[in-house]
Every structure is written in C-alpha cells, then in structure tokens.
C-alpha cells in the first residue's frame, strides 16, 4: 500500500488561534503507487477543465465541480481508501496538562488508577479540563514552550494554585480530594516533574501536527492489517518546520519493538508501519497529495455546515464510505469512553 498525506490547520505554537481550533491530517491510501500511475491522468483531467492543479482552498467549489465526476471515477477505479486524523487543539492542551501533573510515575500523590486505567484516566482528565480557564491554559502552554528550564519550572506553582482555586467546581468529593492532593504535591516539588525539553525539534513533539501524525501512523497500521498488505511508502506534503520531526517519528515508530505491552484493560504495540519509507514532496509534484488536499478541504466544509454541491458531495460520500477517522477531541474521545464504560458496567 501507498499513502499520500496532506494537512491543514497549522498555526505552529499559536494553538489558541480561534480561527483554526482544529488540526487535520488526511491520507489517500492506494494499493499501487498513485503518483506513478495516475499523475498524468489527473493532469489531463485538470487541463480539460482549465484547472492548473487540485488546490481546493484556492479553487473553491466552482472549479472543483467541473472536475469532480472524473476524479470520483478515478478514485473508484483505484479502489481508494482514506484516513483523517483530527486534533482539537484545546483538548490537546488539556491532555498535556493532565499528563504533566497527574502522572503517578512522577507524582507520588497522584492516583495510580486515575492515570493507568484509561476510562478512569479520561474521566478525571475531562473533570480537570472543566476547571481550566483561558489564562491557565495559556500559562501552561507557555511553560511547555519555554526555552529556559528555570523559567519553565518557576511557572508550576502559579499554574497549580490557579487550578486549586477552582477545585470547588468539581461535583464529587473524591475528585476534589485527588486533584487537591496531586496539585499540592506538584506545587511543592516542581523540580520532580519531567516538563522541560530543549530544542525546537524536541518541542515539536507537543504540537498538534505531531500528535495527528502519530494517530495517522496508527490508522495506516490498521489499514495494513485489515487489508493484509504491507505499507510501502508514505509521501507527505512538504512542511519545512516539521519535516525533520516527521521523519524522526516515522523512523522511531517503524523501528519500535513489536512486542505487545499489556496494561489494565488495553494492549499497546508501539511499532507502526514497519518496513515503510517516508518522503516529502510538494503537492504540485504529487497527484496523491492533491487528492488528500481535496478530501480534507471538503471534509472541513462539511464540518462547518457549508452546503456541498452535487459533484463534491459524491466525492465526500465515497470518502466517508471508504474511510476511517481518528477524532482526538473532547467529543470524539468522550464518546469512546462512554462506550467503553458502558461495556464495563454491563458486564
């Protein structure tokens, strides 16, 4: 299999940009090399309709409607599959904060159960998230992005105090007790928390881009196993800020151990897309990336409630039928936890 990847919603470290609250990574997945076999075909389609190339945000619905029927026919011909990873940036901040202060491996006052058993972890994480104001979230993110370790650790007591002041907002006594104990210890021992990493590439690991890419690799691994086909190559749209980090993460996951790690209620395998190669390309040089761009743009229009004209709707309907989504958001993860908790309670 081959995967052609594009992304949208990049605001760098400014993840509080209200105009772009989500980050998306999308992939076109084909059994053969789409770029090698169908670049000429896509160019002919574009030429026939007076379109230079498929850059959906530039074209808009008018030109896309002209090429949509032939693109849909091409996608059906190659039996295309799709994967979309969404990262809600504010949810990312909440999970980063929880991992920083509530890790029972670093904080002896933290609850082991509420960090190592996923349903319990997510329930308390969601409760903590309800206490986070805009100011608290921004101060915490500034701590993660700080260039100086001393300055970063100096922010911990203030962040903890600000959240502790809002503990009475929690509805149940046990949550108030656990959160108070955890943050009180964190406030007193800022030197014990593993919060600081130096270097731009290392800090990139906190960004939505990298979280979405990790989720993408997980999704591609799933496609590979279900289809019983190895993933040969990932072609990613050129992103100068994150190219090195993306390549490093691909190397790390593709060469990780395939030994399963058993945790309460879940089994984790860190190895993803073993044996695949990773390269970057400009969208102008990759027909596959252009299709991924189109699917992402149509998906965002759909999420925004925009009316989708018939030709574009046909492509989007096909993508929904042949695709999977990984939703790293309050809504997406909340729905997963509800289903998991219901199964546990029913048993």
Quick structural gist:
This protein is of the alpha/beta class.
Structural summary, described in words:
The structure is a single chain. By secondary structure, the chain is α/β, with parallel strands linked by helices. It is 55% helix and 13% strand. The chain contains 16 helices and eight strands. The strands form two sheets. The protein has a six-stranded mixed beta sheet, sandwiched between helices. Strands 5-6 form a two-stranded antiparallel sheet. Strand 5 and strand 6 form a beta hairpin. The radius of gyration is 22 Å and the shape is elongated. The mean pLDDT is 93.
Instruction: State the strand order across the main sheet.
Output: 7-4-1-2-3-8
Low-pLDDT segments, ≥5 res: none
Give the strand content.
Answer: 5-15%
* Largest sheet data: 6 strands, mixed
Number of helices, where a helix is a run of at least 4 consecutive DSSP H or I residues: 16
Count every beta strand, where a strand is a DSSP E run of 2 or more residues: 8
Helical content (DSSP H or I, runs of 4+):
55-70%
């Amino acid at each position: 299999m081959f995967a052609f990847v594009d992304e949208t919603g990049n605001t760098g470290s400014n993840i509080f940009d209200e105009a772009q609250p989500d980050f998306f990574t999308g992939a076109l997945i084909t059994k053969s090399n789409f770029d090698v076999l169908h670049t000429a075909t896509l160019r002919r389609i574009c030429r026939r309709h007076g379109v230079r190339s498929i850059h959906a945000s530039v074209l808009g619905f008018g030109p896309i409607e002209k090429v949509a029927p032939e693109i849909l026919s091409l996608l059906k011909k190659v039996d295309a599959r799709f994967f979309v990873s969404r990262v809600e940036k504010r949810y990312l901040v909440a999970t980063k904060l929880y991992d920083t202060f509530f890790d029972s491996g670093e904080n002896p006052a933290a609850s082991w159960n509420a960090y190592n058993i996923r349903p319990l972890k997510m329930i308390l994480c969601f409760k903590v998230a309800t206490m986070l104001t805009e100011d608290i979230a921004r101060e915490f993110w500034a701590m993660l992005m700080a260039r100086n370790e001393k300055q970063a650790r100096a922010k911990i007591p203030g962040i903890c105090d600000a959240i502790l002041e809002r503990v009475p907002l929690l509805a149940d006594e046990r949550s108030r007790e656990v959160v108070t104990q955890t943050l009180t210890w964190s406030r007193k021992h800022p030197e014990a928390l593993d919060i600081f990493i130096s270097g731009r590439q290392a800090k990139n690991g906190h960004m939505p881009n990298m979280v979405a890419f990790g989720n993408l690799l997980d999704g591609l691994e799933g496609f590979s196993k279900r289809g019983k086909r190895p993933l040969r190559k990932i072609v990613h749209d050129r992103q100068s800020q994150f190219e090195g980090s993306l390549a490093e993460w691909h190397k790390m996951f593709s060469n990780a151990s395939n030994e399963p790690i058993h945790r309460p209620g879940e089994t984790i395998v860190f190895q993803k897309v073993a044996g695949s190669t990773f390269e970057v390309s400009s969208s102008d040089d990759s027909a596959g990336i252009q299709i991924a761009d189109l699917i992402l743009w149509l998906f965002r229009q759909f999420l925004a409630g925009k009316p989708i004209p018939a030709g574009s709707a046909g492509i989007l309907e096909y993508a929904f039928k042949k695709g999977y989504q990984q939703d790293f958001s309050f809504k997406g993860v909340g729905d997963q936890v509800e289903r998991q908790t219901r199964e546990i309670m029913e048993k």
